[in-house]
Amino acid sequence: MNHDTTNQLRLSGEPGPDPADRAVESALDQLGQAERSSAPPTLESRLLASTQALLAKSGAVEAPPVIARVSSFSWSLRIAAAIAVLACVGAAWLAVRSPAPAVATTSTVAALEEDIDAIITTASFADAGFADELDKLDADTLNFGQSSSGQDWLDLIEETSL
Amino acid sequence: MTRVASRDDREPDAGERLADLLARASTGDNDAWRSIIDLYARRVFALAKSRCGDADLAEEITQSVFATVASTLGAGGYTEQGRFEPWLFRITMNRVRDEARRAKRAGVSLESTSAPILAAPSPARGLAPATLAKLRQGLGELSDADREIIELRHHAGLSFKEMTEMLNEPLGTLLARHHRALKKLRNFLDAAGVTSPLGDNEATDDSKGAGTES
Distance of CA A73 to CAs A78, A85, B96, Å? Predict the structure, then answer.
């Protein structure tokens, strides 16, 4: 009954299987056969019905779409990670800089105001000086015109060129 | 009639045929999957039923085992290297253990449900139902390790070589354990008055067994 040659693996000189053991083995074979036969006649068809869809469903899942989904998911993760890193860096920068800006802004505005005042003052000084210079230039021009009104310009040019 | 391939009726090219069936089933070939179910469903069922003693629960376990196999095959998660049967029956034993743990948590003994099966008539030829019932009872008296060897061998139809792959035990250890289990069973049957399970005293067994089971 038992055709499994592994059963005959015995050391040389070792007695063969006890006939009583063989009888028990044979009885167990029949018990196993009885258990297999006791399965409902529709066992296979029910198994097929319940697992067929599962097999087809699993088989229908192709690798590339899964890889694509994983890939796009991976890119989404990378973008999200980059945003998170930038946000963290920004937050850290703000945290480090946050006490200074209030003072800095105030001092910057004050300095800017001072600069503007200085520029305005300088401009006013410049404007004042420029006007004086214009008046002086105007006066010099007038004096020069009066002093040179009687002079021969050709003689003057000749003298200058010499 | 469904063909049940066990160690007793394997063909020389059974391995190649099985590899072909598994390869086709993994691509969604329903005929191949049907053939695999025909080959193994009853062996899985017999192992589960012997362990848990309940036909409905055994069928449930069988469904779960084949659902796992179908999912794994369909997903391309299994490559046949001549170890399908050890893998299949390892899944079965794991499911049986899960059920045993669940029953234990619920305070129900799986063995306690086996009483109707002990008295159930058996279609097996040659042995009286009472003798089969005694054998089942004797199995229940074995240690888990010894019983596992007997059930894998005689219910699931595994060879010793396949059992070494499944259990990661040396061949000599399994042979010794099997021999020891047979001896214990023989002693149990002797003590129960079943002197020869295959012998001439089947009529006696019937009368004794009927009295015992009732």
Answer: 9, 18, 39
Is B71 exposed, middle or buried, given 0-12, 13-18 or 19+ CB atoms closer than 10 A?
A: middle
> Closest-CA residue in chain A for B44?
A36
Q: Report yes or no for ipTM above 0.85.
A: no
Q: Taking a C-beta distance cutoff of 8 angstroms, is the pair B63, A48 a contact? A: no
Closest chain B residue to the Cα of A35, Cα to Cα: B46
Q: Tell me which of B37, B68, B142 to substitute to probe the interface with A (most A C-beta atoms closer than 10 Å).
A: B37
| Topology agreement, domain B1-107 and domain B120-214 | no
Instruction: Residue B38: list chain A partners with CB under 8 A.
Output: 44
Give B130 to chain A, closest Cα distance, Å. 11
Structural class in CATH, domain B1-107: mainly alpha
Domain ranges of chain B: 1-107, 120-214
Residue B16: pLDDT band by 50, 70, 90 thresholds? confident
At A79-121, the pLDDT tens digits run 888 999 999 898 888 888 766 555 555 666 677 777 777 777 6
- Per-residue confidence (pLDDT) for residue B213, from 0 to 100: 33
Cβ separation of B49 and A35 shorter than 8 Å?
yes
Looking at the domain covering B120-214, what would its CATH class be? mainly alpha
